[in-house]
Design a protein that fits this description.
10% of the residues lie in helices and 46% in strands. The protein has 15 helices and 57 strands. The longest helix is centred in the first third of the chain and has 24 residues. It starts with 10 loop residues before the first helix and ends with a strand.
Length: 1113
């Protein structure tokens, strides 16, 4: 397949584009600085308006559309039932406003693209009302200042502050600050902003005011990004959750995906490891597939298929999570796993604003299970074994000296450390009413707790949006990321966990190195004074001169768009989004590592590149006729992606040179690959609303994918959604119970396009043949073609209810859903007479159904104290409904069972430990006291695992039953305090800690967990097997409940009062201290209940204690 644009053949071309965009942004910025007088220009804008018998609110809506502005006003200003009839042709906006507002005794003030409405002063005539004292302008000689914030402590930009009875007033700046002068202490200030209840305060003796406006959620119209457009939250018909910037960066996540954890009902977010820089996986509403990816589609500023793990969380303005099929159907074949739409921060008009955010933290190893010390290890491997009539472990003189002296070697402690973690972010934003910009740079350094490990990330972001006249808009966003992850040795941590605590770390501490044939490696005792050549000194392995695993990633993202208003209500937008990433992985193993042990070094180098682009052409039409509102969106989209990989490995390297001189050794393998795929799409969406109460959304999308064969490339994905704002019905509103009540119902179909390229085609492999004593090489069929392969398709019903009480001090959203995914892509077994054992086919059905609840409460809302809580609850039930379609209900090899969840645990059922009193019965089962006892499911007197008789059963699932995230935020004057708790219930893991060498009580080679209550004659434990017993069913003891409650973050902050910043040219300054992951409560005995950490190739769990600052200028 050829790439028509060939934009990915050369890395430099995309970088030149990004550089050009940066230069253009500087030019546009220079132009924007020169522009001015926008307020008057806006008022001189000419529009035509013809309305008949319409309400003031409807007329203002018409003006907003015609003039591309937004009115800000209190609901109390437009309660008049008066109808307006007006006809103006080609009049200036100022003339239109004068005609409409003056009779209503309203006045306006232009603030950027917004027009703030307020009550006008009624100026009476002294002749007509001689007894009435006139209100006149008074001299301004008392300066006052302050801030206006919302109930969550966030600054409100553009809030109106008016002196009652006068025309004098001001608005808040980008930090929510204001300053004003008044004439006397009896003056009354009125604070107002759209969506919030107005507040009046008499000045008195005060000169400083910190105002908190309470939300009037009957007016508050939060904007939600729904894909190829935006919509008011009150007009939503599907299931969409939003996270704003303040919640994204609350816990200073290294990767943005972590911010979703516990914040979005329906989303399961799990970290992949404890390594520095490790990413998180996201699953929305359960797992819908078996062999394909369960990750949601990530859309970053219109770029399809981005990676959240490469973004700086400080650059993100919002993340909107589309959950139900009616919401994700707009993305068709890529919407089956949900969609996360990421909007990065943009510039705001006004003077340049500089923000600096930084923190420094101490990353401390935490929650590590304790291992046996030297004396405990001696007892378990020698004393107790002799007690049970077996042979005890042997120890060298060096080891006995450690044991008898009461010493012990903590190998984990020797290769771990407390590490620094820091982040610095600097941004500059601003612009005029026509052009806005934002530039930012970020640096993150996360050192690992294991020596020689760490992660560094550098980010650059630039964005610019500009209006060219009254009809055209252009803009771009570009993003550059470079990261470096040092994992260090792949064996050092494993070796530290396994090494005997009786060993000696340094060669000079050995009295007789020849006793065990020890080797001096840079001062280390390579065999630790132990007469065993299986575990080398972990300090040798952790040395970067001996072992190194490094991954570097360079990513460039870019999006450019142009938009034109064709006619009234009709706009056309075209955009080009592109992404390029280059990943390099180097793996070096020196002579003194576990894998080499004295042999010459070996190394491997992987080079992977990925590039894609998306071209979107969008037509959008808005029409409002009386009580009817219609929005029609049409899309044509083209997507292309290209992946290349190159790998080379070599051994017997003559010197340690990492992976940079592989040709000097013996090349053991080399490979390269190329995959390409493309997608062509057409989409249509209609949003209809009647009287702002009855809402309908219809969506249809057709996709054609290159991965599928002719006849199956195209698929159509429809959806329909209805919503009824019941709270606006008179028979509901007069009950005075609900402050908000809305019902939503939807159905949709979406696909899973993560079909591997070339899956429908037959493939070949290299093979050799002995042809009459001569080696011959050729190709042979590797897989069977299946031209009938289709999309996996999900069909989903969703019922949602939004409700609020007590002026929405209690506000909640409840979702009930049922999703069935059909045509699962699996490897289906076929008769071997075909020459193949299996073929990729569409078989099987999965069901996910569940409940989601999001609850927001304003517990206390006082002037100086507030307390808000947020609850996000998820319950999901996963079930495999059918498998291969031939009546087969069980696939033991893949642990798939019809009627059970996927990712089920299938094994023997643990029934305790065989005791001495049951010795005769144990012998019947070929066991002995101290060994693992399992359930004989059919009571036939034997434990079997054949197809005909199998005593193994489904024990549980690795999928959670339910998840709860709870956030509490407190604010007292300038102090803020918050903490987040995360609870996951129902996951069952086969504990990797027990499954590994830690749990091998009958081995004398490796160290053990100190917490194991193992069976002995003098300790008839029923929880863990003994030191000498044979255990053919020992895996049954490994399964544990991995439910946990984690206090994920605790934050205490203080914002300096405005008076303390006077003269410093600082508009805002906040200092805070934070603790991440300080407490975990669980019955799970492994390292980390969140993802079942292994001792192989991982870091230790940690807690982070940090200090930070947020400053704006």
């Amino acid at each position: 397949m050829k790439n028509p644009l060939r934009i990915f053949r050369a890395k430099s071309k995309f970088l030149r584009i990004v550089f050009s965009q940066l230069m253009l942004s500087i030019i546009f910025f220079s132009i924007s600085i020169a522009s001015g007088g926008y307020a008057q220009e806006l008022l001189n804008k000419r529009i035509s308006l013809k309305v008949e018998n319409r309400s003031i609110k409807q007329v203002l809506n018409e003006i907003e559309k015609s003039a591309e502005i937004r009115f800000i006003y209190s609901s109390s200003l437009i309660r008049s039932e008066r109808k307006i009839t007006l006809s103006l042709d080609n009049s200036t906006l100022g003339e239109v406003l004068e005609n409409i507002l003056k009779p209503l005794q309203l006045e306006y003030k232009v603030l950027g693209k917004q027009i703030v409405l307020n009550r006008a002063e009624v100026k009476t005539s002294s002749i007509q009302h001689q007894s009435t004292e006139l209100v006149a302008e008074i001299p301004a000689d008392i300066p006052i200042k302050g801030s206006v914030k919302d109930d969550k402590g966030e600054p409100i930009i553009g809030a109106s502050i008016i002196i009652k009875g006068l025309t004098k007033g001001t608005t808040t700046d980008v930090d929510g600050k204001f300053s004003l002068s008044v004439g006397n202490q009896n003056a009354e200030l009125i604070f107002s902003f759209i969506g919030y209840e107005s507040q009046s305060i008499v000045i008195g003796n005060r000169t400083g005011f910190d105002i908190v406006l309470k939300p009037d959620l009957k007016q508050l119209d939060e904007i939600v990004v729904v894909g190829y457009g935006e919509i008011k939250k009150t007009d939503l018909t599907g299931a969409v959750a939003s996270i704003q910037s303040k919640d994204i960066i609350r816990a200073n996540p290294v990767v943005a995906a972590r911010a979703i954890q516990g914040q979005v009902a329906g989303a399961t977010v799990t970290k992949s490891s404890n390594k520095p820089g490790a990413g998180y996986s996201i699953t929305i509403r359960g797992e819908n597939t078996i062999n394909n990816s369960t990750e949601p589609l990530i859309v970053i500023d219109g770029l399809i298929g981005g990676d959240l793990n490469n973004l700086n969380p400080n650059d993100i303005q919002s993340m909107d999570v589309l959950k139900d099929a009616s919401s994700t159907a707009i993305y068709g074949a890529r919407g089956a796993n949900g969609v996360v739409i990421v909007t990065t921060k943009k510039g705001l008009s006004g003077k340049p604003r500089v923000s600096y955010d930084s923190y420094v933290g101490l990353k401390t190893p935490a929650h590590i299970p304790r291992l046996m010390n030297a004396q405990e290890f001696y007892k378990a491997t020698y004393t107790d074994r002799v007690l049970e009539g077996s042979t005890g472990a042997t120890f060298t003189a060096a080891e006995l000296d450690v044991i008898n002296s009461g010493k012990s070697t903590d190998w984990v402690g020797l290769i771990t450390r407390q590490a620094l973690q820091m982040s610095h972010n600097l941004s500059v934003s601003g612009g005029s009413d026509k052009t806005t910009y934002r530039f930012s740079g970020g640096y993150l350094n996360e050192n690992g707790n294991v020596l020689s490990t760490g992660f560094k990330r550098y980010n650059l972001n630039a964005g610019l949006d500009s209006k060219l006249g009254n009809r055209f808009k252009v803009g771009f966003t570009s993003y550059l990321t470079y990261s470096n992850q040092d994992v260090g040795s792949q064996e050092s941590l494993r070796g530290a966990y396994r090494a005997r605590p009786t060993g000696v770390a340094y060669y000079n501490d050995l009295a007789n190195p020849s006793e065990n044939g020890d080797i001096n490696v840079d001062g280390l005792a390579f065999w630790m004074g132990i007469n065993d050549k299986q575990v080398p000194n972990p300090l040798a392995d952790v040395d970067p001169k001996n072992s190194k695993l490094q991954t570097t990633v360079m990513t460039a993202l870019g999006n450019a768009y142009a938009e034109v208003a064709l006619v009234k209500g009709l706009t056309f937008r075209t955009s080009l989004s592109a992404s390029y990433s280059a990943t390099k992985i180097g793996d070096f193993r020196g002579a003194w590592t576990k894998s080499q042990i004295g042999a010459k070094p070996r190394a491997q180098y992987d080079n992977r590149t990925m590039g894609n682009y998306t071209i979107d052409n969008i037509l959008n039409y808005n029409l409002e006729l009386g009580k009817h509102k219609i929005t029609v969106t049409g899309l044509q989209s083209a997507f292309y992606q290209r992946n290349e990989t190159y790998t080379i490995a070599a051994k017997d390297l003559p010197f340690a040179s990492d992976w940079y001189a592989l040709s000097t050794g013996t090349v053991t393998s080399y490979a390269s690959s190329l995959t390409e795929k493309s997608l062509l799409s057409f989409m249509g969406r209609v949003n209809y609303g009647y009287n702002d109460k009855y809402l309908l959304t219809l969506t249809g999308r057709s996709d054609a994918a290159s991965q599928l064969a002719e006849g199956n490339k195209w698929a159509f994905f429809p959806s329909v959604a209805l919503a009824w704002r019941m709270g606006d019905e008179p028979f509901i509103s007069k009950l005075n119970v609900f402050s908000n009540l809305k019902m939503r119902l939807s159905y949709g179909q979406v696909g899973n396009s993560t079909v591997n390229p070339y899956s429908t085609q037959a493939t070949l492999l290299n093979t050799g043949y002995d042809f009459d004593g001569t080696a011959a090489y050729g190709f042979a069929p590797a897989t069977l073609a299946n031209k009938d392969l289709r999309w996996e398709r999900s069909k989903e019903f969703n019922l949602g209810i939004d409700f609020g009480f007590f002026k929405n001090r209690i506000a909640a959203s409840l979702e009930l859903y049922n999703r069935k995914t059909v045509d699962l892509i699996l490897n289906q077994k076929i008769p071997t007479v075909t020459g193949f054992s299996q073929v990729v086919a569409n078989v099987g059905t999965i069901e996910n159904k569940g409940i989601e609840l999001t609850l927001n409460t304003v517990n206390i809302a006082k002037d100086n104290f507030s307390w808000n809580s947020t609850f996000a609850f998820t319950l999901n039930r996963n079930k495999l409904l059918s498998l291969y379609g031939d009546g087969q209900t069980v696939d033991k090899g893949n642990k798939l069972f019809v009627g059970s969840p996927i990712r089920s645990n299938f094994d023997y059922q643990f029934a305790g430990i065989w005791q001495t009193a049951d010795k005769d019965l144990a012998v019947k089962y070929k066991q002995e006291p101290g060994s693992v006892r399992v359930v004989d499911q059919n009571n036939d007197g034997q434990i079997s695992s054949t197809d005909a008789i199998d005593d193994r059963v489904v024990l549980g699932t690795q999928l959670p039953n339910w998840i709860l995230g709870v956030t509490n935020r407190f604010k007292y004057k300038n102090l803020d305090f918050s903490f987040f708790t995360y609870y996951r219930n129902g996951v069952q893991y086969s504990n990797n800690t027990l499954a590994g060498t830690f749990g091998e009580m009958n081995s004398t080679r490796y160290n053990k967990l100190a917490s194991l209550d193992y069976w002995r004659s003098d300790n008839p434990s029923n929880t863990y097997f003994g030191v000498v017993a044979a255990n053919p069913y020992r895996s049954a003891i490994n399964y544990q409940d991995a439910s946990f409650l984690r206090i994920s973050d605790i934050t205490l902050g203080y914002t300096l009062p405005r008076k303390a910043l006077d003269g410093l040219k600082i508009s805002n300054a906040r200092f805070y201290t934070q603790i991440l992951n300080p407490f975990v409560f669980t019955k799970f005995t492994g390292f980390d209940p969140e993802f079942n950490s292994s001792i192989y190739q991982d870091d230790v769990p940690s807690a982070v204690y940090s200090l930070g600052v947020n400053v704006s200028f």
